[in-house]
């Protein structure tokens, strides 16, 4: 081992860049390709609906709003529909899709389990319980709250419910001041089923009208989108969408194991708190405005890993872009397949997500040669 | 250098280490030996900072280990643990690059990439750089992790390596190769502390040995001082004879045949 016996030179003169492999190329191209697809999907989705607007028209209207005159033709009516109805909805879909995708990837990294989902630590169950409580008890106990918050009562309750359960699960999983990930998963399952039971109990006592609200809320929808909604969730969703992808290197180290990561200088406890806090913010906010939209956080990161490998520096931003892309397309389908009625988007993501997920499982099974 | 003074550690009421002292110096390979459950790995985890001893002091370069920022420590000492739980399909070169994470923000420099290649070459895995880690054999995985650990302290001055059973799953050639690497690094001023099971390998490569038994240090010193039939009998409960190594000036241990245990002894 003569090479090791001397201290290596600061930088070897013979350093040539490593050869680019197909895997490197896929990793590098994924983000630009996803970004282009997302732009395309947004233009397409904004044009689709009862009053179709061609992509050129959508572009023309957007540029017109920026005080740019173009040759792209559109009618004033189209402009009104696009600006007041379609665009806020598309923006909400992009934000929520990105938040759910990146939060799913972050949770899978934290639990070092590709099947983890923000729902596992109780975020969705807590939000649902709080929302159902609001719907069922609004006439009596929460009437006062409702008066204050008006339309936002449901969203605020769902968000607080999400944060509350996550905090509870986190506290339950603490040993000697450090949260143990395995215990956290089990505590999450316990709290999930408790919240489920309480939600069931409330549903049991609900009136017919309340039942309808509960069901629709649970299926998820972007139907309530307006500019005020978009602007109120923008800061809450932008924080996790921007900050989570910056934790890619840390999550790579965490994949080695918590002790191994700390040997490499990673402040593991701090990282875990950051991940849980940001993921809860993302999922809690999403559930609050759009109900529970299943499978996105689970399937999208999987697909990204399938294409670009497990490096979280690509997986996190990839899952954000991919989540936005999938939800934009799913919402377009939800609005158009049974027009003039509308499918709840949660049904669509589950209908499309389940076969994809099973396909991934079977494919992995085959690759293991089982 | 690491300086442990009268360190005790217990889980519940079960003492795992009892007043163990040791000094791990730069330029020396210190091997921790002893039977299963003697406290070797526990001692190594105290050195790596994973465990905080109940009593006694742990110092690195004259400062309490707990006071040294994790990022500073990460550039000076690297740890190879016994178990690896990596299940994601990282490529081998991506794994080794993680050893360089303490050195770069964002994208790795050309120097980081060069260190990765050199570390892979040092453990003889250059040809598997593009392979997915979970598809490697157990011994290859162990060597890939070693390359990551080497990359972490590649150009450190007076760096430290803490190796917990680094030879597990390695063939005869790679066992010696791994210890060759450790010894080459001590020539460069590194300190190496390794948990070893093979007493003859420990005798051949280590500058110092620390023999543990039931959480206590039974003997410490040069291989010749520690590896006496009396010490081995005390710690392992097995009789050995000391031979002279045919080529080297190190002791060679040969276990003596024991009377065969009756068959009933093993039956349930």
Automatic annotation (TrEMBL), chain A:
<feature type="transmembrane region" description="Helical">
    <location>
        <begin position="151"/>
        <end position="172"/>
    </location>
</feature>
<keyword id="KW-1003">Cell membrane</keyword>
<dbReference type="InterPro" id="IPR000522">
    <property type="entry name" value="ABC_transptr_permease_BtuC"/>
</dbReference>
<feature type="transmembrane region" description="Helical">
    <location>
        <begin position="275"/>
        <end position="300"/>
    </location>
</feature>
<keyword id="KW-0813">Transport</keyword>
<dbReference type="InterPro" id="IPR037294">
    <property type="entry name" value="ABC_BtuC-like"/>
</dbReference>
<feature type="transmembrane region" description="Helical">
    <location>
        <begin position="184"/>
        <end position="205"/>
    </location>
</feature>
<comment type="similarity">
    <text>Belongs to the binding-protein-dependent transport system permease family. FecCD subfamily.</text>
</comment>
<feature type="transmembrane region" description="Helical">
    <location>
        <begin position="33"/>
        <end position="63"/>
    </location>
</feature>
<keyword id="KW-0812">Transmembrane</keyword>
<dbReference type="Pfam" id="PF01032">
    <property type="entry name" value="FecCD"/>
</dbReference>
<feature type="transmembrane region" description="Helical">
    <location>
        <begin position="83"/>
        <end position="107"/>
    </location>
</feature>
<protein>
    <submittedName>
        <fullName>Iron ABC transporter permease</fullName>
    </submittedName>
</protein>
<feature type="transmembrane region" description="Helical">
    <location>
        <begin position="343"/>
        <end position="362"/>
    </location>
</feature>
<feature type="transmembrane region" description="Helical">
    <location>
        <begin position="225"/>
        <end position="244"/>
    </location>
</feature>
<feature type="region of interest" description="Disordered">
    <location>
        <begin position="1"/>
        <end position="20"/>
    </location>
</feature>
<keyword id="KW-0472">Membrane</keyword>
<feature type="transmembrane region" description="Helical">
    <location>
        <begin position="119"/>
        <end position="145"/>
    </location>
</feature>
<keyword id="KW-1133">Transmembrane helix</keyword>
UniProtKB/TrEMBL annotation, chain B:
<dbReference type="InterPro" id="IPR003439">
    <property type="entry name" value="ABC_transporter-like_ATP-bd"/>
</dbReference>
<dbReference type="InterPro" id="IPR027417">
    <property type="entry name" value="P-loop_NTPase"/>
</dbReference>
<keyword id="KW-0813">Transport</keyword>
<dbReference type="InterPro" id="IPR003593">
    <property type="entry name" value="AAA+_ATPase"/>
</dbReference>
<keyword id="KW-1278">Translocase</keyword>
<dbReference type="InterPro" id="IPR017871">
    <property type="entry name" value="ABC_transporter-like_CS"/>
</dbReference>
<comment type="function">
    <text>Part of the ABC transporter complex HmuTUV involved in hemin import. Responsible for energy coupling to the transport system.</text>
</comment>
<protein>
    <submittedName>
        <fullName>Heme ABC transporter ATP-binding protein</fullName>
    </submittedName>
</protein>
<dbReference type="GO" id="GO:0005524">
    <property type="term" value="F:ATP binding"/>
</dbReference>
<dbReference type="Pfam" id="PF00005">
    <property type="entry name" value="ABC_tran"/>
</dbReference>
<keyword id="KW-0547">Nucleotide-binding</keyword>
<feature type="domain" description="ABC transporter">
    <location>
        <begin position="2"/>
        <end position="239"/>
    </location>
</feature>
<keyword id="KW-0067">ATP-binding</keyword>
């Amino acid at each position: 081992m003569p090479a090791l016996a001397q201290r290596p030179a600061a930088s070897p003169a013979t350093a040539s860049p490593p050869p680019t492999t197909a895997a490197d190329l896929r990793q590098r191209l994924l983000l630009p390709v996803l970004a282009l697809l997302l732009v395309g999907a947004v233009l397409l989705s904004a044009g689709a609906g009862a009053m179709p607007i061609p992509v050129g028209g959508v572009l023309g209207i957007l540029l017109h709003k920026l005080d740019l005159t173009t040759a792209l033709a559109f009618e004033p009516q189209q402009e009104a529909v696009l600006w007041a109805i379609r665009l806020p909805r598309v923006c909400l879909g992009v934000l929520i899709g990105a938040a759910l995708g990146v939060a799913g990837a972050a949770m899978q990294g934290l639990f070092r389990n590709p099947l983890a989902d923000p729902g596992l630590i109780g975020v969705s169950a807590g939000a649902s319980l709080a929302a159902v409580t609001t719907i069922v008890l609004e006439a009596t106990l929460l009437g006062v709250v409702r008066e204050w918050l008006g339309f936002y009562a449901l969203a605020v309750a769902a968000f607080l419910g999400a944060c509350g359960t996550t905090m509870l699960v986190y506290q339950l999983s603490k040993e000697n001041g450090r949260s143990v990930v395995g215990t956290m998963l089990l505590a999450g399952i316990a709290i999930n089923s408790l919240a489920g039971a309480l939600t069931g109990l409330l549903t049991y006592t609900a009136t017919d009208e309340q039942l309808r609200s509960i069901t629709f809320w649970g299926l998820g929808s972007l139907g309530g989108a307006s500019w005020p909604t978009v602007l109120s969730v923008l800061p809450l969703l932008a924080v996790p969408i921007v900050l989570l992808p910056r934790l890619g290197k840390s999550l790579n180290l965490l994949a080695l194991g918590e002790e191994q990561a700390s040997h490499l200088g990673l402040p593991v406890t701090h990282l875990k708190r950051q991940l849980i806090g940001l993921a809860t913010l993302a999922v809690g906010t999403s559930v609050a405005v759009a109900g529970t939209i299943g499978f996105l956080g689970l399937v999208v990161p999987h697909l990204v890993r399938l294409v670009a490998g497990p490096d979280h520096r690509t997986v996190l931003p990839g899952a954000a872009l991919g989540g936005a892309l999938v939800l934009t397309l799913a919402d377009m389908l939800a609005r158009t397949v049974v027009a003039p009625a509308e499918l709840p988007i949660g049904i669509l993501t589950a209908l499309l997500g389940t076969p994809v997920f099973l396909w991934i499982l079977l494919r992995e099974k085959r690759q293991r040669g089982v | 250098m690491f300086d442990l003074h009268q360190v005790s550690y217990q889980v519940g009421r079960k003492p795992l280490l009892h007043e163990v002292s040791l000094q791990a110096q730069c330029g020396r390979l210190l091997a921790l030996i002893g039977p299963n459950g003697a406290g070797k790995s526990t001692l190594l985890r105290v050195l790596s900072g994973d465990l905080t001893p109940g009593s006694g002091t742990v110092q690195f370069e004259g400062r309490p280990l707990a006071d040294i920022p994790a990022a500073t420590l990460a550039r000076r000492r690297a740890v190879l643990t016994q178990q690896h739980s990596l299940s994601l399909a990282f490529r081998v070169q991506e794994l080794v690059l993680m050893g360089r994470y303490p050195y770069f923000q964002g994208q790795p420099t050309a120097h980081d990439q060069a260190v990765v290649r050199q570390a892979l070459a040092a453990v003889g895995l250059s040809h598997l750089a593009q392979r997915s880690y979970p598809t490697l054999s157990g011994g290859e995985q162990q060597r890939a992790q070693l390359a990551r650990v080497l990359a972490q302290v590649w150009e450190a001055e007076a760096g430290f390596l803490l190796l917990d059973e680094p030879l597990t799953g390695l063939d005869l050639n790679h066992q010696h190769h791994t210890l060759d690497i450790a010894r080459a690094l001590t020539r460069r001023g590194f300190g190496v502390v390794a948990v070893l099971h093979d007493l003859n390998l420990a005798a051949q490569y280590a500058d110092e040995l620390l023999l543990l038994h039931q959480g206590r240090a039974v003997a410490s010193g040069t291989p010749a001082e520690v590896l006496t039939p009396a010490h081995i009998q005390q710690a392992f409960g097995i009789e050995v004879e000391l031979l002279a190594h045919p080529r080297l000036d190190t002791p060679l241990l040969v276990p003596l045949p024991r009377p065969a245990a009756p068959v009933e002894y093993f039956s349930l």
